[in-house]
Amino acid sequence: MRQFKPWEWLILQQRYFARPRRGLDALHSEFLSFSKKELEQGQIEWAALQRQNIRLLGWQEKNYPKLLKEIYDPPLVLQAQGDVETLNDRPWIAVVGTRKASRWGKEQAKDVVTSFVKQGCGIISGLAYGIDAAAHQAALDAGGPTWGVLGSSLDRLYPVRHAPLASHMEKKGGGLLSEFPLGTRAEHYHFPQRNRIISGMAQAVVIIEAAGKSGSLITARYALEQGREVFVVVPPSREDPRYEGNWRLLNDGATPIGDYGLRTTDHGLGIGDPELKTFDGDMLSHLQVPCTLDHLLQKTKKPVPEILTALTKLESLGKVRKLPGPLWQSL
Predict the structure, then answer these.
(1) Which of 13, 51, 200, 265 has its CA 20 to 30 A from that of 156?
(2) Dihedrals φ, ψ of 157, to 5°?
(3) For residue range 227-281, what is the model confidence (pLDDT) as tens digits?
(4) In a domain? residue 272
């Protein structure tokens, strides 16, 4: 595959951000070319990114999120503000939920995020009101990095009220990502599109609080299509419409976590347990045959963050591989 200059990536972004799969196919075409006008405009946009200290991550770049490359329709280009060196240095967990978060939902987001961060994971969300903002803030409070994926371009931050939160995220090892070209305002149809990036970057997705029409259900659907694990916090009530989405996902087979109805310790999830130690290579004995994450939970009685961290390390060492399903197996 040919190597592209930064302004050529920006041309590709303009052409294909709404059709990422076609863009991926175009990368391999020997007939791909750029007009003089496109090159001039691309160089103008590249200069604008540099002035705003925005990093450009083309699909070939080393800091482009590795897991995101695995999905069917990854964005050709990501624009980033923050520490891009962290994007591939740890397991990432997506934590999402309703914009109209209850006090219970915000408390659950804090507990879940804190547990994952203590086990060495980073947190991904969408910088929206409600659960997203609570997840980002909880990660920062726990001392971990967190990335927000926008439904607008980086120079059209939405919601604007979260600018201080975004600035704090950038200073603490995370930051903001967008597949949209500069000057793109937030539109309602952008958010389902960006949700595939949130799930695609993560090893697992946690749904904290979701009503029946919550956008986080779209993220959960993308996660399942992408072969990611989906966890759902068990709500305190079956009748409250604020939790309809949680129960729908649980009834469809998502893995439950939480303190209501099902105890976290009963499922080996260990959410919030500060005494848990780093998982070691003993897990390899369970992976002689392909295993799901749920099977590993039952066999090892270890918490989800610990298992995901161990799998990531073992995969980087060439000890295990991820199979469709999603399944894991030792090599």
Answers:
(1) 200
(2) -50, 130
(3) 898 999 989 888 899 999 999 999 888 888 864 322 333 333 333 333 323 444 5
(4) no
Question: Burial of 36 by CB count in 10 Å (0-12 exposed, 13-18 middle, 19+ buried)?
Answer: exposed
Q: Can you list the alpha helix ranges (DSSP code H) found in 142-228?
A: 163-171, 190-201, 216-225
pLDDT digits (tens, 9 = 90+) for 69-82: 999 999 999 999 99
pTM exceeding the 0.85 threshold for the entire prediction:
no
Q: Please, which residues have CB within 8 angstroms of residue 166's CB and are 6 or more apart in sequence?
A: 81, 127, 148, 157, 175, 176
Q: Is residue 136 part of a domain?
A: yes
- Are 70 and 110 members of one domain? no
Residue 169, token pair as written in the block: 């995220």
Domain count, the chain: 3
User: In this structure, what CATH number is given to the domain that contains residue 313?
Assistant: 1.10.10
Give the whole-angstrom CA distance, residue 68 versus residue 287.
Answer: 24
CB 30 within 8 A of CB 59: no
Reference 176, options 187, 188, 163; nearest CA is 163
Question: Would you place residue 85 in the very low, low, confident or very high pLDDT band (cuts 50, 70, 90)?
Answer: very high
Q: Kindly state whether residue 56 falls inside one of the protein's structural domains.
A: yes
Q: Which domain holds residue 297?
A: 281-330
Query: 122-125 and 255-257 as β-strands: parallel, antiparallel, unpaired?
Result: unpaired
Between 328 and 62, where is the model more confident?
62
The owner of tokens 């695995």 is 70
